[in-house]
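Note to self: keep these together.
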Amino acid sequence: MSAPSDRDLIQRARRGETEAFGELVTRYQTSAFNVCYRILHERAEAEDMAQESFIRAHERLSTFDEERPFGPGMRGVDDERGPASGWIGRHLATLNTGNSSPLRAVGMGTRPQRSLSGTVPVSALRSIADFHLGGDQRALQQMRVPLNTVYADDVPGQDTLSIMDRLERLDPLAYTAARSAKYPDTEFGLALKQTAMLIKAEVGLEVSAIDVGGWDTHFAQGSTSGLMPNLMEDLAEGLAAFHADMFDRMRDLTTVSMSEFGRRASENGSLGTDHGHECMMMVLGGNVNGGKVHGEWPGMREGQLIGPGDLAVTTDYRDVLSEILTRRLNNEALSDIFPNHEPRMLGIIG
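Structure:
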């Protein structure tokens, strides 16, 4: 007896047969994991991403193209618009700016953030010194000679080498920020400083993604001192320094601060807070209607909190990002970047 086709299994799964969808998962789980692993280079995260892709595929069975095999048609595994890609990755894939720079999109750190995942190559950068081998001129020359030969008649290759030349002249330790801006002596401060340096060096940077960890404050969170206040101080001082340093270019920049989870409204038994439903976002930059809180305050009184005691979500983060994409980045492909979402413009950008 021959195995059922993908089309047959999709049709049965649409009718609610869980065994049919389970067979599709079994059939394609290895290839889905392999694709995700090539993106993330981390087994646990790749397993999570592959599982998320199957979940999204199940949610969208009603719109699935029966004529396509299930594996290649899984939105987000081989499609830049799906959950195995990030929203910034989908933005890059749907907006051709003619920018071939290897530093068009940079993830500050040892590997790119998941929001950058997609079909457009991105660079991971922990330190600008990594690009000029820590100042080792002999090692740099040994690398450049064969590269010059290989890319002698290649325009994009020569552009890349030109960018490397500019990076050689950049030194975060010797950098003097404008307007006496003082970046905090932290990984976040260094990432912001290097972002400013890349922008000023005009190496083709369009996107810089920075992670700030440590916010999972289940224990000893603190109020005026402790873990949370220290994190907030680092974030505030870093953003303030970046704004001061880049003030003359601020009309061309948009900075977004966001989190994938929030905190519970009340303290737990360990002087911390557990995971919450809501979060907050901050937007800084050109044409931003700033100095105010956008959205509705849901309240914290009895009957206003949801679930086990969380603030209610009143603003969809995709609405904020959609407005930035269209009004700041000139990308109208919102249906590809945020599938199945009808954005609502909030007036954050003037």
